[in-house]
Specification:
The complex is a heterodimer of chains A (421) and B (321). Chain A is built from 22 helices and 5 strands. Chain A is mainly alpha-helical. In chain A, a hairpin with a 2-residue loop joins strand 1 and strand 2. In chain B, a hairpin with a 3-residue loop joins strand 4 and strand 5. The chains are: A mainly alpha (421), B alpha+beta (321). Chain A: Keywords: Activator, Metal-binding, Nucleus, Repeat, Transcription, Transcription regulation, Zinc, Zinc-finger.
């Protein structure tokens, strides 16, 4: 009750502040007489005192799902349907998207990032269920750049603290190989190129396993290796008719895009097979090359475990042995004891004269591109005296400054007159 | 609809995989032999404690050749550290014991402080040459990471006119539309500096802490000679990058399986494995060729310590056939 006011009609002191709709009024509670009325409209100065609260600072954001989040969730569901994923995947992906949206960094991100986030959530879901989906596929479907995708993907995995398993290679081989259009004759695929799916799948799997064992898969994009393995498997199943077909033509026939590194993976795989062939008695006499070895791939794959063991020295044990020799006997014997057995075996192999290749990743077998300069030991303290002459060399002389200013002015003049007469 | 028609490279594999609803293929099919010494576990198994216990046991067996003392010390420290780690566990998804105590199998904890840790403002008496950390010869890797880059900042303590600096210095470039700082370079030590109008400066490219400090002082002297009252306040090393080579190939797929809380390996994106070590807080890039890049350190000792921590882990992935 406001102090000091009295109703002019009945004289009571019971005045109440009440509002009639949006108009504040001072009303006598005894007789109902309106003592004063508030102003319906606000003046300019009044409005200046009003405070606006931005949407992001109000609680409205937390109470309802924003339009862009709704759009994002719809896109997640659409993407899951396009990829024909099982229904449980959809719910998981939607949950991840909602979880990500709770972080302010994601809420305030650009629309492009939110679109890429849709793909990230779907990819994480697929990975966790061992569904082989490559990032390239997602990027194509989203019309997104792989760089943008990778940045958002790494960020979201870290932000949500998720454990994302690696791409399952065996599953990827099966899905990828099934997408090759070589299992039925068609106008573009002659009969001699048609192949049985199961045979091709099993042989491709064996070739990819071989590539994995011989360090051709670690650190590289998996798809080009699988393409090369599929090509070799297909060729080896009917070499007489298919040796003339090149990798590029094969991919065109099969209606599959040829990834750029696939040809170098193919060469690496053929080199491995050649080395293995050297260990088979009945192939040694044939003097195989990269084309003719394809005919014997079935034999090589049959005995691949023994052949790899015989054809390649353990590159790691070899390097250990070299290290031991270099460091001499001064070092502790503790470490040497473990490798003593294997290194002596290597040395005896070398003495025999056979020189099997080292089983190492190709990057370690190539000669270094440039000689590493040995780091020189510098005796810099950080507190030395800095001579004036050394600093002077970095400063322009006054004449140079004048020349530079003149040149700048001339350039400005030239720019401001675009079409000199 | 033939989806494969319109899909560019790598956009394959849209058909549903066979047996899609069955549980995932155990990762240690004969396809991926990861050698002896590591207990294979499928990815979905969340009781990662069993792998770590197994590995602990195996590593301890290996080290039984060495002195008993060190083993006991290790165990005590592991317990202490495991207890500490449990209380500061960052991963909510895994149990606290998911933090691998394996990091502390290295021997550096039992050794004296590394003499390689040079203080930032050394007295003229201390030797400046990089010294090999004094770990016992039989346990140390014998490899010292080389520093490749040092990033430091210093405050010149006065507002600068970048246009004047760019005009009167020979080694400066300034393009305000591209970047709001002057880029200045000196030849000795070979470094680059970004000088901002607020007076703050970033110095990059030096190969040691002392070189970084000397280079920053030279830049400050250049700015002084250009007529600004430049001082040399709050010199601080912000980041150090080192690299080294363990000289054997590493099975990155195996490493990411056993240390999944710390590792991130996406061959589709980057050929190396990104290992985020918790103590010390260093990020390591590990490549299949055995080359390791260590970054994120504020002092040299962190790089050495991180490498000594990772070396036994990497050695565990060496024998693969």
């Amino acid at each position: 009750m406001p102090g000091g006011g009295r109703c002019p009609d009945c004289g009571s002191a019971e005045l109440v502040e009440d509002s009639h709709y949006s108009q504040s009024q001072l009303v006598c509670s005894d007789c109902g007489c309106v003592v004063t009325e508030g102003v319906l409209t606000t003046t300019y100065s009044d409005e200046g005192n009003l405070r606006e609260v931005t949407y992001s600072r109000s609680t409205g954001e937390n109470e309802q799902v924003s339009r862009s989040q709704q759009r994002g969730l719809r896109r997640v569901r659409d993407l899951c349907r396009v990829l024909q994923l099982p229904p449980t995947f959809e719910d998981t992906a939607v949950a991840y998207y909602q979880q990500a949206y709770r972080h302010s960094g994601i809420r305030a991100a650009r629309l492009q990032k939110k679109e890429v986030l849709v793909g990230c959530c779907v990819l994480i879901t697929c990975r966790q269920h061992n569904w082989p989906l490559t990032m390239g596929t997602i990027c194509t479907l989203l019309y997104a750049d792989l760089d943008a995708f990778s940045g958002t993907y790494m960020q979201i995995v870290k932000l949500l603290g998720l454990d994302v398993p690696s791409l399952c290679l065996a599953d990827l081989v099966k899905t990828y190989c099934s997408s090759f259009k070589l299992f039925q004759a068609s106008p573009s695929v002659p009969a001699k190129y048609v192949e049985d799916k199961e045979k091709m799948l099993s042989r491709t799997l064996q070739l990819v396993e071989l590539a994995d064992e011989t360090w051709l898969v670690t650190g590289r994009h998996p798809l080009p290796v699988i393409t090369a393995a599929t090509f070799l498997a297909w060729q080896s199943l009917r070499p007489s008719d298919r040796l003339t077909c090149s990798l590029a033509r094969f991919c065109k026939l099969a209606n599959v895009d040829l990834p750029y590194p696939a040809s170098s993976r193919l060469q690496e795989l053929l080199a491995v097979l050649l080395r293995m062939a050297e260990q088979l008695a009945w192939l040694q006499v044939l003097k195989l090359n990269k084309r003719s070895v394809v005919k014997h791939i079935s034999d090589l794959l049959q005995h691949r475990r023994t052949l790899v063991r015989k054809a390649f020295r353990d590159g790691t044990a070899e390097m250990e042995a070299q290290e031991e020799e270099r460091q001499g006997q001064g070092q502790g014997q503790g470490r040497g004891k473990e490798e003593g057995g294997s290194s002596s075996l290597d040395l005896s192999e070398e003495k025999r004269g056979a020189s099997p290749a080292l089983l190492l990743p190709p990057c370690m077998l190539k000669p270094p591109k440039r000689i590493r300069p040995t780091p020189s030991v510098s005796t810099v303290t950080g507190d030395e005296n800095i001579s004036d002459s050394e600093i002077e060399q970095y400063l322009r002389t006054p004449q140079e400054v004048r020349d530079f200013l003149k040149a700048q002015a001339a350039r400005q003049a030239a720019v401001s007159v675009p079409n000199p007469p | 609809m033939d989806q494969n028609n319109s899909l560019p490279p790598y956009a394959q594999g849209l058909a549903s995989p066979q047996g899609a609803m069955t549980p995932g293929i155990p990762i240690f099919s004969p396809m991926m032999p990861y050698g002896t010494g590591l207990t294979p576990q499928p990815i979905q198994n969340t009781s990662s404690l069993s792998i770590l216990e197994e590995q602990q046991r195996q590593q301890q067996q290996q080290q039984q050749q060495q002195q008993q003392q060190q083993q006991q010390q290790q165990q005590q420290q592991q317990q202490a550290v495991a207890a500490v780690q449990q209380s500061t566990s960052q991963q909510a998804t895994q149990g606290p014991s998911g933090q691998t105590p394996q990091l502390f199998h290295s021997q550096t904890l039992t050794t004296a402080p590394l003499p390689g840790t040079t203080p930032l403002y050394p007295s003229p008496m201390t030797p400046m040459t990089p010294i090999t950390p004094a770990t016992p010869a039989s346990e140390s890797s014998g490899i010292v990471p080389q520093l490749q880059n040092i990033v430091s900042t210093v405050n010149l303590g006065c507002k600068l006119d970048l246009k004047t600096i760019a005009l009167r210095a020979r080694n400066a470039e300034y393009n305000p539309k591209r970047f709001a700082a002057v880029i200045m370079r000196i030849r000795e030590p070979r470094t680059t500096a970004l000088i901002f109008s607020s007076g703050k400066m970033v110095c990059t490219g030096a190969k040691s802490e002392e070189q970084s400090r000397l280079a920053a002082r030279k830049y400050a002297r250049v700015v002084q000679k250009l007529g600004f009252p430049a001082k040399f306040l709050d010199f601080k090393i912000q980041n150090m990058v080192g690299s080294c080579d363990v000289k054997f190939p590493i099975r990155l797929e195996g490493l990411v399986l056993t240390h999944q809380q710390f590792s991130s390996y996406e061959p589709e994106l980057f050929p190396g494995l990104i290992y985020r070590m918790i103590k010390p807080r260093i990020v390591l890039l590990i490549f299949v060729s055995g080359k390791v890049v260590l970054t994120g350190a504020k002092v040299r000792a962190e790089i050495y310590e991180a490498f000594e921590n990772i070396y036994p882990i990497l050695k565990g992935f060496r024998k693969t056939t």
